[in-house]
Design brief:
This protein has a single domain, classed as Alpha/Beta hydrolase fold, catalytic domain (Rossmann fold). Helix content is about 35%, strand content about 10%. The protein has helices spanning about 25-30, 40-45, 55-60, 65-70, 90-100, 120-130, and strands at about 10-15, 80-85, 105-110. It has a three-stranded parallel β-sheet, sandwiched between helices. Helix 2 crosses helix 3 (about 55-60). The longest helix has 13 residues, at about 120-130.
Length: about 130
């Protein structure tokens, strides 16, 4: 959203979101056995109106922000938050965002999915408050 609706968004937080690598067949296969308590690919497939692992693997590359060409577009101020050891959405996606487009703020924690620590939410809220002043 920060890359596609900059004129309508003052600030955004990407909290462990998918960007590119999470949509590759290799990562989908690896994440299927990560920290998520059930079949991740099938769950994501259902969220996108699909049904099966194979349908998700076939469809997901189209969702890549690299493939869509949006990463070089100007973006709203963006804070990236994630866990370095996230087995669901790869930290490489966060680094990819840092390598493209406008400069961004980032905080990565040495934990798993989405970087949840006692500091995570206060950091996001504080950053958003500063952006919205």
């Amino acid at each position: 959203m920060a890359h596609t609706h900059r004129e309508r968004i003052r600030a955004a937080v990407n909290h462990g979101g998918m960007v590119h690598f999470a949509f590759t067949p290799e990562w989908i296969a690896k994440a299927q056995y990560g920290e998520y308590p059930f079949e991740l690919a099938e769950t994501l497939a259902l969220a996108f109106g699909l049904s099966t692992y194979d349908e998700w693997v076939e469809h997901s590359p189209r969702l890549s922000l690299v493939r869509q060409g949006v990463l070089e577009r100007p973006c709203a101020p963006l804070l990236l938050i994630n866990g370095i050891y996230d087995t669901i959405f790869p930290i490489a996606d966060m680094y990819l965002l840092l390598e493209h487009g406008n400069p961004k703020s980032a905080r990565f924690f040495p934990v798993e999915h989405m970087g949840y620590t006692p500091e995570t939410v206060p950091i996001m809220v504080g950053w958003l408050q500063r952006q919205l002043r």
